[in-house]
Write a structure and sequence with these properties.
It is a single chain. This protein is α+β, with helices and mostly antiparallel strands and 112 residues long. It has 4 helices and 5 strands, in the order βααββααββ. Strands 1, 2, 3, 4 and 5 form a 5-stranded antiparallel β-sheet that branches. A hairpin with a 2-residue loop joins strand 2 and strand 3. The two termini are 21 Å apart. 6% of the residues are buried.
Length: 112
């Protein structure tokens, strides 16, 4: 089965204490969140941070879609609790639509 790769970006609030707390929170992600990620077909999910900018790299199976993940997340109270907690640290990118958090990035180069 082929895999898909996605890169997304989001900003944290530019507050060193909040950034440190966000990083610490991600050292112990709730098991229900890990399970919900894996159950949607995501096989690898990495988050990188520079300053207050976050980059997320996702690898997923061919059946994965953001629409299915969003629908699953909307039905999961623990995921909603996590997302609400994370919004304490996060801020939308300036070009995000209302309520939009992680923004899918366009690939503009690939070394082959």
């Amino acid at each position: 089965m082929s895999t898909q790769k996605f890169c997304l970006a989001l900003d944290l609030k530019d507050d060193p204490a909040l950034i440190a707390e966000y990083k610490l929170t991600h050292q112990n992600v709730w098991p229900e969140i890990i399970e919900s990620i894996k159950n949607t077909g995501i096989t690898v999910l990495d988050i990188y941070c520079t300053g207050n900018r976050l980059f997320m790299i996702i690898e997923a199976d061919a059946a994965f879609s953001f629409e299915k993940k969003s629908a699953s997340d909307a039905q999961n109270p623990k995921v909603q609790e996590w997302e609400n907690l994370m919004w304490k640290f996060q801020q939308a990118l300036p070009w995000a639509k209302a309520g939009q958090k992680w923004i899918l990035m366009d690939k503009i180069f690939e070394l082959k």
